[in-house]
Amino acid sequence: MTYQQCLDWLFSQLPMYQRTGSIAYKADIGNIVQATEKLGNPHQNFKSIHIAGTNGKGSTSHLLASVLQEAGYKTGLYTSPHLKDFRERIRINGEMIKQESVIQFVKENKDCFSQIGMSFFEMTVALAFHHFAKEKVDIAIIEVGLGGRLDSTNIIQPELSIITNIGLDHTELLGNSIEKIASEKGGIIKSRTPILLGRKQHQTKAIFEDIALDNDSKLYYAGNCDIESDLKGDYQKENKNTAYSAIKILRSQAWDIKDKHIVNGFKNVQKNTSLIGRWMILGQSPSIICDTGHNEDGIKHIVEQIKKTSYDKLHIVFGVVNNKSTDEILKLLPKNAQYYFCQAQIPRAMNINLLFTKAKEYQLTGNCFKSVTDAFKKAKTVAKENDLIFIGGSTFVVAEII
């Protein structure tokens, strides 16, 4: 099998949730348990940190990985989704898993996985755990894919569990209230394992405290951190607070992490981990910035950041996926912008005519484009030297530009 044939097989077995939506979601961890048993339970052979939450999982994961790398630990990093290359999901010390490793794993296990009926995400998690164990990482940062309690990653026994924050997202699967979503994400809290909350929210406080008490797990809330980072955007403040607080807990567990490792780790996140897509500057004159924030809470932070950015005129290349919160997102968007509405090349992308019609209800003006590329090209043609072009609304819109 070639690498591309492996990818085609992985993508086709059962749909990717990110591309097709709830039809691909499997609320059960039986498959990953069965698969990892056949692989020799690789997840039991390395230490880990487990991170759930509505927003900030990726940035917090990368901040932690960068600091641990600076401290000299061989650090695995499992995140999702990927933007350009499938292998972005599985890294060790910032280096993506090799194509040859993906090929070998698929060739050796495809028949077994087909019999089990595994989804794309389940197979990817199994690959990550196998790779981290094989390469003997000292620790792996494992980001939850969706939810927590029934997520395929939730078979690990981590050193520390982290829940960044709770917002309304994936309500059709996780519940239509903050409290219900918190209960699902709280499912990553393990017995006698410290749990760190990145944001203190009155709606979820009692829920997490009760789950922690039932598991005899010490609960922490993130404190403040004023260390500079190369991750731009004021919204990264919360993620820095969470990562710094996590490091303090790891120190109490005898992990050898010095102050200089934290400073250098925060300063070199993109260099150490190759993180992309978070308030990412793509060009100057005009300023071109993209961000993968896509739910209500994420868009709210992005709009606040745009307000703090200097420009003459604002151009927004914008597309979304089909979900129930589109109206809530459109309400938040600035009305003093020229919009270039577009549709990413995935089945979940909202029809461009429907998006355009909805946007007009919220006094958002602009034009429709048949592709993300066409929308971006037009924005670059129209924008003047001192203007700002922002690209976002969906991970997949950003992915097609980067």
Description:
- The strands form 2 sheets. Strands 4-3-2-5-1-6-7-8 form an 8-stranded mixed beta sheet, sandwiched between helices.
- The radius of gyration is 21 Å and the shape is globular.
- The protein has 402 residues and is α/β, with parallel strands linked by helices.
- The protein is built from 17 helices and 14 strands.
- Helix 3 (30-38) packs parallel to helix 6 (120-134) and helix 13 packs parallel to helix 14 (326-332).
Report the uncertain regions. 17-24
Chain-averaged pLDDT: 91
- Spatial gap, N to C terminus: 28 Å
Radius of gyration, rounded? Answer: 21 Å
Percent range for helical residues? 40-55%
What is the SS-derived class?
alpha/beta
Oligomer: single chain
Estimate the global geometry from the Cα principal axes. globular
Biggest sheet strand order reads 4-3-2-5-1-6-7-8
Number of strands: 14
Query: How is the biggest beta sheet arranged?
Result: 8 strands, mixed
Number of helices: 17
Residues in β-strands, percent = 5-15%
Q: What is the topological layout?
A:
Blueprint: H1 3-13, H2 17-20, H3 30-38, E1 47-52, H4 57-70, E2 75-78, E3 90-92, E4 95-96, H5 99-116, H6 120-134, E5 139-143, E6 160-163, H7 171-174, H8 178-185, E7 195-197, H9 205-214, E8 219-221, H10 236-252, H11 259-267, H12 269-273, E9 280-283, E10 287-290, H13 296-307, E11 314-318, H14 326-332, E12 337-341, H15 352-361, E13 365-368, H16 372-382, E14 388-392, H17 395-401
Parallel strand pairs: 1-5, 1-6, 2-5, 6-7, 7-8, 10-14, 11-12, 11-14, 12-13
Antiparallel strand pairs: 2-3, 3-4, 9-10
